[in-house]
Each structure stands twice: as C-alpha cells, then as structure tokens.
C-alpha cells in the first residue's frame, strides 16, 4: 500500500518492492480517503480467502483467519492487541506459501496495518462502543 | 523401465556432511544425517510430493525463500539449515495455521497418543494459541464407509487420502470438494467409499480425521502392543502388525516391506482380524457322534482321529489348503506318507504337473520378483485377476504403469480391473488358456496364429497386438501368470506353452525379468516345496506316485479311500467339481478336517474337526511366490481350547506310529531346511522380520533342473463352441472367504452369486441387469458388464448358497429364474 507521498516512485518491480508494495500483474487500485481502511482491508482479505485454492496451509488458513480477525475488528470484538496478531499472521504467510496468492494478500494488509495503525485503533474503539458485548467472540 | 542408477552426492545439513543418493528428497536425505524435518503431506509411497502442508520448510544457502524439503531433491554441495530462527518461525507458523481449524479434542480422539499432529505441535509448535475465533464445524463423525469414519473438523487437508484414491489405488472416489478454507474430503458422488484398498487411508491420515469404525474407541495407544507377522489370507503375504490388547487382536496395520507389499494392505487383510474373535469360530475339537457334531476333549478327538487313520492306512487321501504353513505341510506329508503309507496327498486344486515342470516354472534363473513388476519394461498379466487373486500386486502394477512407464499387457477371460491401464488387452474363452498361450507363442515366433487364436476363442488381431507390444517393449519382461492356467487335465501342456513364451520373451535369463506366479493359495509355493504334492516329496524329490486332488475325490467317491484328511480346506467351497466331492465326503467313513468355521463340507460331513488357530496365534513359515521365506509369529494366545496345529499334527503322527521328534515349531523348520536342499542354511533368525529369498542364497544351486520347453507344442484343446449356450468361466472374489462372512465389519462385502454377462448376450436372452437367472441350474443375479466377451458367462467361486463348482460342463444355459 502506497501513500500520497509515494506518488513519485518509478513504476518498476524493484522500486515497488523496495517501497513495500508489489507490482504483480501491474494493476493499481486507487482508494480515496472517504473509504475506511478496515473496509478496504476486509474486502481485500475476503477476495483472497475466496480465491485461495486451499492446497497449502499458510494461504488457506492465513486468509481465512485474517478475514475472521478483520470481521472481529469491524464488529467491535477486538482490541488493539489484535492488530499485532493480524500483522504477525501476515508475516507468517509471507514467503511460506506454494504460490504468491497468499503473499499478495499479506503484503498490502501488513502495510495497511503499519501505515494506518491509528485509523485501525480508532475503528476498534468506535466499534467497541457500539457493541454491547465487546469481549464475547461469537461461537 | 529399469531402476534408475543414482550416484552418491555429499551435502551439508546443520553443519554435518551427509552422503545421499542424488535426487533423494531433502526430508529423506536429512534422516541419513540424523536430522528430522517434520512433514504432514509428504509420503513417498504416494508418489511425487505435493509440498502442500509447508511443514517441511528449510533454508538452503543461495535461495532467498524457504524451500519445501519434501519437494526439493538434494544436489551435490547443497548447504541446508533446519535450525535457524527463520526456519523455526516458519515451522511455528505452519503448526499455528494447521491448528486454526483443528479441534483440540485429543482426549476423545482415537489418534491421540499416536498422532503426528500432536507430536509435531509438541516438537515444532509455539505451544500457545492466539486464535480466539470460532473454528469451522461439520456434522461429525460421518460414515465415509461402513469401515471408515470421517471427522472433517479434524482434517488438516493434507491431501494424502485423496492422493491415495486418485494415484495409488486408482478408484478415483475421494476428492476435495469446495475450495480454500471451505475444502473438505468426500467421495465425488456422495456414496460411501467402498473399494478394495480403502482402509489404507486410515493409516495414511496424519490426524484423527479418518478412523477405523471397528477400532473406534476400542483402545488407547498405551493399552496396546504391536506384534509383527505375515498375513496368510492370500499369496500376497503382506507384512502386517497386529494391534493386541488383552490377548485380542483389535487392529491390523501394515508393516512396510518394499519388496513384498510396498506398505499397503487390502481391506480383507486389514479388517478380517475380527473373524479371529467371533463366536462362530471353532475353538475346541469336535467329533461327530450319533450324526451330530459335539465338542469333545482333545484326548477323545485325537483318539478318534488316530484310530480312523490307523484303520485306513494307505486308504487316506490328504489335501492341504493354501493357508497351511510350511511346518504344517511338512508334518502332514510325513504322517501321511511315512506313518500311514499313503501316497495320496496334494495341495493343488487340479491338474498334476511333473516335477520337471514345477522346477522350470519356479527356477531361480527365470524367476521375477515382486519389485521387478514395477521396474520391468513390460508386464503380461496372464489368466489372473490380481485385485482378487493377489490384491497387493494390483497396486504394484498400477504403480509401474503410472510412475515408471511400464507397458502393460492383459490377457484374461474375464474383463480385468487393469484393462484401463493396459496398452494391449486380449480376451480368450474361459478354460482356453493353453490355446491362448500357444497362439501367443505362434505370434511371437511370427507363425500361423489364426487357427490357434480361434481355438482359444480369441481375436487374432488382439493376440498379434499383444505379441508386438511385448516383443518391442525392451529386455525386461515379466509374466505374471495365474496358477489356474495350469489347472485341469491339460495343465502340463499349458505350463509348457507358458515356458516357451517365457523363453521367447526372455531368451537370456537375467535379474529383473522372468515369470512370477500368482498361486491359488497363500502358501501354495511353500507347500509344493515341502512336498505336499502327489509323487513329489520335500525339496521336489521323487516320492511314490499318488492320487492328485481330483483323483482323491474320485477314489473316495468310488469307495476306494475310506479316510480324507482336509487341512484348512473345505472341498465344497474351495474346489471344483462339487458333485464328485459331495459323493466323496458322503462315502468316506472318516473325514478329518482342520477348520476355523463350520462351512458346508465340515458341517455336513466331517467326523473329526480340529480347530484352526487364528492367524495371529500361528507360528510358522510361509514361502512367498517369489521365493521369500517369511515368518508368521504368534501375537496372541490360543483362544478357547484351540492348540497350535503343528502340535496337533505331531501328536496325531505319534499316535499313528511315527514320532516326528518335534517339540517346538522351530524344530519343524530345522527338519524342513534339512530335507529341502534349496532351503539349506536358512535360519529363523535370518528370516527375521523381512524374510529371506532363497533363490538368491547359495543353496539355490540345489534347485532341480527343470524340463526345458519342448520344441513343438501339441495341438491345444479348443474352447467349446457355444452352440446357443454360454461358456462358463469362474473367478474367486477377494471377498468370497469365510473370514469375510464372519467379520462383523466386512460382512456387508460378502458376495452374492452374480452372473456376469455381455450386454449383447443378455439382450439376445431377454435378460435385464439385476434380474434373477439360472446358470446351468445355479441361481444368480444377472450382472451386465461391458467388456465381457460375448458368448461367456462368469460366476463367482466360493459362495456357499449358490456354488459355481456345481457346474462341471464348460457350457451352460442361462435362463430367467
């Protein structure tokens, strides 16, 4: 994930990788500031969970677990500590899969948590206040 | 394709220099340096690795990302690390991911205590769970089949069971349905997973997702002991390990032997153990008293038997069934020959072969081994249905075709389950094996094929195609032939034709090629070699000429043999020509039988019955069809009043006047190695847990010279011309066995008589699939099977309610019942 200040980077594999992004197939998704970063993260994670073939465990279980954690954040059943687990899970996926589908989720998600941690924490706090039972994970 | 030659390379793992064969996968090569790399999905028996679980990630210098050790072949100079922080982090991660959806129900899980997931979590996991979200849920446990329970919540999606079904047993039933985290294992059509080798997936499963229905909740790993032995239910002689709790066998596991069973078991071998502990089993001696069989003391039974044998003397006919051990066969033939003076002893169903032909068919120089089947250039499967006759070899052939480019030729009367894997298939009329082999010989020699093919009821083009395939395949050709080819009156001629074809395909005998027999019984080869044949004594020496099995039946029916000794066989179930046998059993004044179950012949005719000890209680040796001597070892005590049968035979022999000087089973084996020159020097210690192939010992030079194949074959018997009737062929299903009927878990597989018909014949006769029919008077259910050659009908042997052996005519009318 790149921020407005990264707009001057040159569009090649090495530079993108250095900036913590990935050129991949070359597509760019532009997200404006009216979107909540948690929504973007959840949408992205759901997409990769759905696309995961399920053959290798880091991708299959990693995408699945990531979606569950983001949903928890969105529903107000999370604490800021969960963000550490969320980004640690992304690290656990990265580089350990059979193909790069898992990496393609882990890389942007981990940079989202890093670069928008404040917004994530705010979202967690707000969602918790809306949830009457913020410490109970639905079974 | 011959075995690949691999050079030795050196690589470094965790600072140790280790030598390994080039191309070995890293996880296997690591073991040579005492380094363990944890795995879940990797199982070399399943073929090429998939690298799916990612448990085996290791660091290799020069490669930035971690690599899957199970899918990375070692190269010279490779430097591998398995103990770095990066690797440990990855291993911790994978364990955590696998536990995301795995329930922590170990205390109530059958696998608990012998579970790779437990062990690896303990050894390579963090030991703490960060997962608080709900796990996925399924209805559980479900019956994947009557034999296997599936718990999908426990499944870690390693693909092992699916790969087994798709790539080893090739029944193509198991698949992964859905995708990603929604994946689950199921049969493709939702029907139960019923297949001859299905039980192997229980042993393959690295978690408790697939459990054995009969074993579920019967024991925990700390309640049980494992005891190695050899399965004696079929000639495959797979190496097994009995799970014993409180002197009862509760489970059978494979004891991997790459040169015998390749680590697999069939479901009969895996589940028929239940028949060892059922109430129907005979566990004390019985004597017919006033027309009724009664349980009696050993003293009474032995006395009755010895008196009757003493009266009959030379009028005793003895037949040993295929599950008889070498020791039992040896003691029996000495008692019958030396104590009673009767030469009438046999272990074959029908057809006497001269000693020279026995010698030629199993000669060490032209003998192929089981692994040769996998690495040959081409294999001819001749007159045998492997999945029924020697199931484990069926998997070996499939493996050769799938992984080693083996060219397969199948020549049988009945459509074979291997047809789909074969490069050439030929059909011949039931019972026309001799003519077919003669036709094949002519085709290989470039001679006149048409007349011989017609005599065999085969298509000339198919015979030629088969010959072309075998001739052009390469120098390593293995012929896997069924013993039934050499049964019947013209068995010797068929054997000669077979030898001739064998020598044409392998003009220069060499290891890796030759003949491999699929015997009719589990230990048929051993029984022949210890002298349980008419006119042939231990070590294929000459003995007084006697009657063979059909001869014994005829003589007994005519009143010339007053006593019959049936060791592990019920002629009404196991042997052809039922009418003669019924007459023989009726007429004989004494019928002494060793049996496990009161099957028809024993129930109605036996005068003295000695209980057959369960296989797990047996001690003795068996000789595998490729010459490997293997040991059955006692795992449990003798149930009820039963005794070791070698002891019973020795005691009986003493009572009829010959003390064979045996106090233990190993003493019998010592006598065998003294009497059989080509077993000389082999000890039970040497046989140990993996066996000794005598054809590669020094003693093999004592094998008698075989009769060379004759230059010209005489005209073979032609298959009967149908004339409006159908030719009757029979086959014995792997499930047609008393131990299947007696095992609660397997009972559902016990076959009912069915008549396999070609759809065209059925249409002509106005018979539909599933209708009741009579085949020569035998009731059956019509089973239309594509591929069945027109003009033939096939019935199952060994079915008590509708015995195929009642039909003696080669032709029969099929009518609606």
UniProtKB/TrEMBL annotation, chain B:
What PROSITE patterns does the annotation carry? 2FE2S_FER_2, 4FE4S_HC3, 4FE4S_MOW_BIS_MGD, COMPLEX1_75K_2, COMPLEX1_75K_3
Q: Which reaction does it catalyse?
A: a quinone + NADH + 5 H(+)(in) = a quinol + NAD(+) + 4 H(+)(out)
Keywords of the record: 2Fe-2S, 4Fe-4S, Iron, Iron-sulfur, Metal-binding, NAD, Oxidoreductase, Quinone, Translocase
Which EC number applies?
A: 7.1.1.-
Q: How is the cofactor bound?
A: Binds 1 [2Fe-2S] cluster per subunit.
| Cited NCBIfam families | NuoG
Q: Which family does it belong to?
A: Belongs to the complex I 75 kDa subunit family.
Name under which the protein is recorded:
NADH-quinone oxidoreductase
